[in-house]
Design goal:
- The complex is a heterodimer.
- Chain A is an alpha/beta fold.
- Chain A has one domain: P-loop containing nucleotide triphosphate hydrolases (Rossmann fold, 3-Layer(aba) Sandwich), CATH 3.40.50.
- In chain A, the strands form two sheets. Chain A has a six-stranded mixed beta sheet, sandwiched between helices. In chain A, strands 2-1-4-5 form a four-stranded antiparallel beta sheet, covered by helices on one side.
- In chain A, strand 1 and strand 2 form a beta hairpin.
- In chain A, helix 3 packs across helix 4 and helix 4 crosses helix 5.
- Chain A is globular and about 55 Å long.
- Chain A starts with 19 loop residues before the first strand and ends with a strand.
- Classes of the chains: A alpha/beta, B alpha+beta.
- At the A-B interface, strand 5, helix 2 and helix 3 of A face strand 2, helix 1, helix 11, helix 12 and helix 14 of B.
């Protein structure tokens, strides 16, 4: 396992053409567990995602899908391989540059919502704009706009604990949308919701996709993944199957 | 958006791999002049593909205004966090509060004393110095020594100075007793702890006293050892609330004196009334109260330039008359307002030295407590930090957030210290009472207190903030709280 061919060097990787939002080329993520024991969370994953696609990444726990999501979300960098996101070669960036990419190019939706408990819905949605340095008035306008898109305009001054689970997730979606990212990255977005609310949230994603957004869904549930138009199955750190639906 | 055609790019070949295919493009900042640069490595299959060079975006840090946006956010977070933990914040800040209070109270007390000294003690009159048995306002050891060596200034010595000093404006003398037995009586009223002073007639011109009604001691009174007195306002209040005191006869230590004049009210010094006195001719004083009175000789110069010369002359004359050998210390003191002020400033300097030490210790302790609570706060809010990082907060955004939080916290501590100091100095003023002095807080104390506490917060916030900034976003997001 330890011998990987160093010849798949990056010099052979070309920058992807314009329509490609994500290009992953032979991504490896290896963890050293001391004493020459290496664990490969990802072993050579390659795929492209075009602009406007609705993709689900599926796999059981331990399949490496979380690691893959962290790499796609620019929270982490691969041990080896090239990762392009909307023209940025992410795999080579520093911490602060990654922060910039996360801010501009990625909208996260998490299973546990990850909203700031003490801040109002509006302020939560404003956060990405704050970190991109947008002046207050413009920020407010955009945040309100994003909340309107998820039908929460009238609840924008409520704190997360005053909102239902579905409403919280919609706030999180508004936050993901607000900076017009290249992709919306949703990690088990319905995992903490009952199935009716889950369907409602999937409806929101469907509308966003129709509006032209690129959506990447990470899930282990088939009926959730079924909303996507393409499913990438991951198992044991490799892509098992890449199927297109409809 | 081709890099090759973008004007802001200053393409520089900075590194080439052995195959000659790896390039790094060094791009200038989007906005010129901000000076930051990013390395965007570009990999190419071969050089001749430059024509179809695909887009690579420069990574642009937030515009400069963005810094202020995140500073405002940091302030908001700080206030929010402090509001959420009021009691904890208060306890955390006690050290800083106490330090600031101490600092400001001491500064305001010293300021009040300075004003007071300037008002009262230094008011001997700018051009007056006093020849007395002791040098005033000197150290305890020096005073013990002087008590053994120094001799009272005698009337003959006063007359010697009066006759031999040159070019002075005025020279007067007074002697006084004031003890538990010195008293004045009028009908059934008695005033104790009376200041009985024998004076030369010109003392009214030298000192700060003014005649309110009647007259002062005159030359004929002096020459004839007259039984007349000039009284202070306390005696008027005690004896003659509704009567004209002039020409009434009062008993001073049982000896009858006729009131010829009343002084204007002076007020009190160090809480002691300065109006509780009778003044009689020095000659009468010598006859009835003290055969060899110890004098305070008041020498008044024409202007301040003359003071030094007159002081030297006085010293030389007295040393000659007392036969003090060369290199021996004076056996008398020459007291001018500037020497008193000098001593006063030495005392306040020492007080300040001690205060600075105490304040420094408190501030360091307070700062460490703040650091401790900030470390706890970072741990508590790891998940929040993870969320912020996932949304694009850079290291310096997080760093700033926590540094500002600890600065704001400590600054609030400084503010509370200021309030406490205001209350303490008001209390001092209330207890000591009006007429003593007013502890007034100088603006510099307010500024020093607030700035110092904020800086302490900033300094001790740096370490916890850098811990927060270093957190790995994935780890931080995974942490539940």
């Amino acid at each position: 396992m330890g011998t990987r061919t160093g010849t798949s060097s990056l010099s052979e990787t070309q920058m992807p053409p314009d329509g490609v939002v994500i290009k992953a080329d032979d991504l490896w993520k290896t963890y050293d567990m001391g004493e020459a024991i290496q664990v490969h969370a990802l072993s050579g994953v390659s795929f492209d995602i075009d602009r406007g696609e609705y993709v689900a990444i599926m796999g059981p726990s331990g399949s490496g899908k979380s690691t893959l999501m962290n790499l796609i979300g620019c929270l982490d960098t691969p041990t080896q391989g090239a990762y392009w996101l909307n023209g940025h070669l992410v795999s080579e960036l520093s911490d602060d540059e990654l922060a910039y990419i996360r801010n501009k190019e990625i909208g996260f939706v998490f299973q546990t919502f990850n909203l700031l408990a003490r801040a109002s819905a509006l302020h939560n949605v404003e956060l990405p704009l704050i970190y991109s340095g947008m002046p207050a008035r413009e920020r407010l306008e955009k945040a309100e706009d994003a909340l309107r898109k998820v039908d929460l305009a009238e609840r924008m001054n409520h704190k997360p604990n005053e909102l239902s689970g579905g409403q919280r997730q919609r706030v999180a979606i508004a936050r993901a949308l607000v900076n017009n990212p290249s992709i919306i990255l949703a990690d088990e977005p319905t995992g903490n919701l009952d199935s009716a609310t889950g369907e409602e949230i999937m409806g929101v994603f469907g509308r966003l996709h129709e509006a032209g957004n690129t959506i990447l869904l990470v899930t282990h549930e088939h009926d959730i993944a079924a909303h996507a138009h393409r499913i990438i199955h991951v198992r044991d750190g490799r892509i098992e199957r890449d199927e297109r639906i409809g | 958006m081709l890099i090759a055609s973008s004007t802001f790019v200053t393409a520089a070949l900075s590194e080439t791999s052995e195959s000659g295919e790896e390039w790094k493009l060094e791009t200038g900042n989007w906005k010129s002049g901000t000076g930051s640069r990013f390395l965007v490595p570009i990999r190419m299959a071969s050089l001749d593909q430059t024509a179809s060079f695909p887009q690579a975006r420069a990574i642009r840090p937030a515009a400069r205004s963005g810094v202020w946006v995140s500073v405002r956010e940091a302030f908001w977070i700080a206030l929010e966090a402090l509001r959420a933990h009021k009691l904890r914040t208060f306890l955390t800040l006690l050290g800083v509060v106490i330090a600031t209070t101490t600092l400001i109270v001491v500064m305001s007390l010293v300021n009040g004393m300075n004003l007071y000294i300037a008002d009262h003690i230094a008011n001997l009159g700018a051009n007056v110095f006093i020849v007395h048995r002791y040098q005033w306002a000197q150290g305890y050891d020096a005073w013990l020594k002087a008590r053994r060596r120094n001799k009272p200034i005698l009337i003959e010595e006063f007359e010697f100075l009066r006759d031999n000093l040159k070019n002075y404006r005025n020279i007067g003398a007074e002697a006084e007793i004031q003890n538990i037995d010195s008293n004045a009586r009028y009908q059934s009223h008695t005033v104790y702890f009376l200041d009985i002073a024998g004076v030369t007639p010109n003392m009214i011109d030298i000192g700060m006293q003014k005649v309110e009604s009647g007259r002062y001691i005159t030359q004929p009174d002096y020459e004839h050892e007259s039984m007349v007195c000039f009284i202070g306002q306390d005696l008027v209040t005690a004896f003659f609330p509704n009567v004209d005191p002039l020409n009434k006869e009062i008993l001073v230590n049982g000896i009858p004196f006729r009131v010829v004049g009343v002084a204007e009210k002076i007020g009190s010094t160090f809480g002691e009334s300065q109006d509780n006195f009778v003044q009689i001719p020095l000659t009468t004083y010598k006859k009835y109260f003290s055969p060899r009175p110890s004098l305070e000789v008041n020498v008044q110069a024409w202007d301040s330039d003359q003071m030094m010369r007159l002081e030297d002359e006085t010293r030389a004359l007295l040393r000659a008359r007392r036969h003090i050998p060369y290199l021996e210390d004076d056996t008398f003191g020459i007291n001018a307002s500037d020497t008193i002020m000098q001593t006063w400033h030495q005392i306040t300097g020492a007080v300040f030295g001690v205060t600075i030490g105490i304040v420094a210790v408190f501030m360091v302790v307070g700062g460490i407590v703040i650091m401790n609570i900030m470390l706890a706060s970072v741990t508590e809010r790891t998940h929040e930090i993870g969320i912020r990082k996932s949304l694009g907060a850079r290291r310096r955004d997080i760093l700033m957030q926590f540094v500002i939080e600890s600065s704001v916290m400590a600054g609030i501590g400084g503010g509370m210290g200021l309030l406490a100091a205001v209350m303490v100095s008001e209390l001092v003023n209330l207890v000591v009472g009006p007429g003593f002095f007013n502890a007034s807080i100088p603006l510099s104390a307010i500024l020093v207190g607030l700035v110092l506490s904020t800086v302490v917060g900033l300094f001790f916030g740096i370490y916890p903030a850098s811990q927060a900034a270093k957190l790995d976003p994935i780890e931080a997001l995974r942490t539940e709280n």
